[in-house]
């Protein structure tokens, strides 16, 4: 292998290892202007896009131990067949990337998601697009925090209720006497 290709493979391997999400897409039929629009939308959610040769991508995925060397099952073969671009993100908000891609596919009918790697685990197109239905990371954190605070809020209301009821009763009697 030539030194340029070795350097490129190592660069791709570093990207693959650092990314929490890698999505492989088939961009066949996507015009340059539309592909540029996809890249622009993905940049807004801290996701980047690279068009790669399948051989280099396979070597990088093998080096990152996302696929096994010489693994030739049909799933890996379908991932690395035809024109392939990878979308990668180091951000923790994976649902944001899935939402952008799902909305883009709904708008333009392209690209086709081949599969995705999330924390080194391979997930299908269907499972990846299901992530788009999740709320964002900030919303999930807010929901968990609200759930954790709910028992304390109910306890405070329960403790304050007898005093509040007594105050309401005194107010009613004071209005009747006047």
UniProtKB/TrEMBL annotation:
GO molecular function annotation:
large ribosomal subunit rRNA binding
One biological process term from GO is: translation
Entries under SUPFAM superfamilies matching the protein: Ribosomal protein L10-like
Which InterPro entries does the record cross-reference, listed alphabetically?
A: Ribosomal_uL10, Ribosomal_uL10-like_sf, Ribosomal_uL10_bac, Ribosomal_uL10_bac_type
Per its UniProt entry, which superkingdom is the organism in? Answer: Bacteria
Is Ribonucleoprotein found in the keyword set?
yes
An example of a Gene Ontology cellular component annotation for this protein is: ribosome
- Renumbered to this chain, the signal peptide range is none
CDD domains per the UniProt record, alphabetical: Ribosomal_L10 (cd05797)
For this UniProt record, give its keywords in alphabetical order, as a comma-separated list.
Answer: Ribonucleoprotein, Ribosomal protein, RNA-binding, rRNA-binding
Q: Say if the entry is tagged with keyword rRNA-binding.
A: yes
Family named by the database record = Belongs to the universal ribosomal protein uL10 family.
- Xref: NCBIfam families: PRK00099.1-1 (NF000955)
Q: What does this protein do?
A: Forms part of the ribosomal stalk, playing a central role in the interaction of the ribosome with GTP-bound translation factors.
The annotated subunit structure for this chain is:
Part of the ribosomal stalk of the 50S ribosomal subunit. The N-terminus interacts with L11 and the large rRNA to form the base of the stalk. The C-terminus forms an elongated spine to which L12 dimers bind in a sequential fashion forming a multimeric L10(L12)X complex.
Q: Known PANTHER family for this protein?
A: 39S RIBOSOMAL PROTEIN L10, MITOCHONDRIAL (PTHR11560)
Protein's UniProt name: Large ribosomal subunit protein uL10
Q: Which organism is it from?
A: Methylacidiphilum kamchatkense Kam1
């Amino acid at each position: 292998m030539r030194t340029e290709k070795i350097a490129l493979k190592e660069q791709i391997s570093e990207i693959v290892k650092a990314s929490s999400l890698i999505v492989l897409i088939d961009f066949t039929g996507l015009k340059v202007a539309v592909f540029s629009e996809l890249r622009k939308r993905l940049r807004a959610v801290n996701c980047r896009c690279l068009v790669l040769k399948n051989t280099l991508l396979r070597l990088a995925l093998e080096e990152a131990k996302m696929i096994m060397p010489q693994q030739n099952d049909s799933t890996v073969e379908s991932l690395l067949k035809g024109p392939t671009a990878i979308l990668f993100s180091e951000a923790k908000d994976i649902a944001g990337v899935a939402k952008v891609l799902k909305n883009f596919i709904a708008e333009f009918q392209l690209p086709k998601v081949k599969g995705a790697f999330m924390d080194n685990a391979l997930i299908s197109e269907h499972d990846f697009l299901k992530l788009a239905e999740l709320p964002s990371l900030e919303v999930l954190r807010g929901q968990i925090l609200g759930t954790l605070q709910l028992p304390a809020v109910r306890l405070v209301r329960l403790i304050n209720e007898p005093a509040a009821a007594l105050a309401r009763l005194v107010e009613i009697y004071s209005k009747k006497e006047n």
